[in-house]
Design a protein that fits this description.
Elements: H1 11-16, H2 20-26, H3 38-53, H4 63-69, H5 75-86, H6 92-101, H7 107-123, H8 126-150, E1 170-171, H9 177-182, E2 187-188, E3 192-197, H10 203-216, E4 221-225, H11 230-242, H12 253-257, E5 267-271, H13 279-290, E6 297-302, H14 316-333, E7 336-343, H15 346-351, H16 364-368, E8 371-376, H17 379-383, E9 387-394, E10 402-408, E11 413-416
């Protein structure tokens, strides 16, 4: 790729993505904020939606195909892009002019400039070409301003007046007073955590309980499920929050839905169990949320290794490393406390205790997250209905507290042994405890 083609997905990537091979290369990089205006966003959605919905279609889209896919109000813009695409082989200077002219803030002027450039380039009219170059100079200034806005200013020690607090906003674990005490109130906003366990030991159960306790504390929760459909996930939350046994939910649905308390946070469940999902997909959903709700909240991903990654399965290790780094940055950018489930391998089950290196996927995931909880269960603990939880690592000075949890499978809850009162404000909190 040329340096130009590595630019964030905007005009050039949009044009290139008309070809399926280029779309597959670009799709994981695209977020709403990378587009210049609604025209481009809607055209991208048309291309992206077509290729997602037609995975076996081998031929590439044509610009005429795209004109049929977009609303009438955007068909002229497709023609503009088609005209630019026709002349992209003019050379690197012209490619740069097109891209930079499209950074201009006025959508109307932008359409006019790019159309004029396409015509001027085709007819070799130097005066028009020079006129476009003036617009480009303005665009360069605008682009530089945007870069300046993203620049991080350093903290100068010689003029600093105070230290930042070491205890930022926290989301309570809720089901374990020991973990809340060890972490000074819970896991932090702006950080990414992980819950790692072998198959069927309690990753999704613990993830849903983290979400349920965050809701009880009034925080919004955004749950992305790549494994279980959204109706099932909703049932897990309702059973945990209301204390109504999971097996009784369907027969008591009308009653149970009335038990949702107004003081609880908002729960949004995104079901990608049957759809392609990348970290870019998750970010686009969060961007849509943040347009309406900027409160700190919780993002749960079940789970990262099921996301499609750059390079596909040929380079899964590196792809997951890039994905977890991007996810971690998103938690800072959108003021969220993130947690992803992580699959442990068979060795963890055989060893009886899950360790950092027991990941079944890329070691980059447990290595990059800011904190990691491991779940384990020896045969003896399984018979006693106990689940061992440990904060195996943390960049935040949490130490390595360990607790035994009781998994209440009837109500899809977990709580620290001897601390069932954490759920006592809900009906029938202690029923079914062996």
């Amino acid at each position: 790729m040329t340096e130009l083609e590595n630019l964030p997905p905007s005009t050039l990537v949009l044009i290139r993505s008309v070809r399926r091979a280029n779309w597959e290369e670009s799709s994981d990089l695209v977020t709403d904020s990378m587009f210049l205006d609604d025209n481009q966003r809607i055209i991208w959605d048309a291309i992206d939606g077509f290729y997602h919905d037609n995975p076996t279609e081998s031929s590439d889209l044509s610009w005429e195909d795209i004109r049929r896919l977009v609303p009438a109000t955007h068909k002229d813009y497709v023609l503009t892009l088609a005209a630019i695409a026709e002349h992209l082989d003019e050379g690197p200077l012209e490619r740069r002019i097109v891209h930079q002219a499209l950074q201009h803030s006025s959508v109307i002027r932008m359409n006019q400039v790019t159309t004029e450039w396409a015509v001027a380039s085709a007819e070799k009219k130097k005066d028009k070409y020079d006129e476009v170059k003036k617009v480009v100079e303005q665009a360069v200034e605008l682009e530089q301003k945007l870069l300046d806005d993203d620049r991080v200013e350093p903290l100068r020690a010689s003029t600093a007046k105070q230290f930042a607090t070491f205890v930022g906003p926290r989301i309570p674990f809720g089901f374990s007073p020991t973990l809340d005490a060890a972490t000074q109130g819970g896991y932090p906003i702006g950080k990414l955590g992980g819950v790692m366990a072998p198959l069927s030991v309690g990753k999704t159960l613990t993830l849903c309980n983290l979400g349920a306790m965050a809701l009880k504390a009034g925080f919004p929760v955004y749950h992305f499920s790549l494994e279980i459909d959204q109706g099932e996930v909703l049932a897990w939350y309702y059973s945990a929050l209301t204390g109504v046994p999971y097996a009784e939910l369907e027969g008591r649905a009308e009653e149970v839905f009335q038990l949702w308390k107004p003081e609880w946070g908002e729960l949004l469940i995104y079901d990608y169990s049957g759809h392609r999902c990348t970290v870019g997909t998750v970010e686009r959903a969060i961007q849509n949320i943040r347009r309406k709700d900027t409160r700190p909240g919780v993002m749960l991903l079940d789970y990262l290794a099921l996301c499609d990654t750059p390079g596909g399965y040929a380079d899964r290790y590196s792809g997951l490393g890039l994905a977890v780094r991007r996810l971690r940055k998103m938690m800072v950018k959108y003021e969220l406390a993130g947690v992803t489930a992580i699959q442990a391998n068979r060795q963890a089950m055989e060893a009886g205790r899950t360790e950092l290196w027991h990941t079944a996927d890329s070691i980059e995931i447990p290595r990059v997250v800011d904190w990691l909880m491991t779940l384990s269960q020896t045969p003896e603990e399984k018979n006693a209905r106990q689940l061992h939880a440990k904060l195996a690592r943390s960049r935040l000075g949490f130490g390595n507290p360990e607790v035994l949890l009781f998994p209440d499978y009837a109500r899809l809850r977990v709580f620290e042994i001897g601390q069932h009162q954490v759920w006592e404000d809900e009906p029938d909190a202690q029923e079914g405890i062996a």
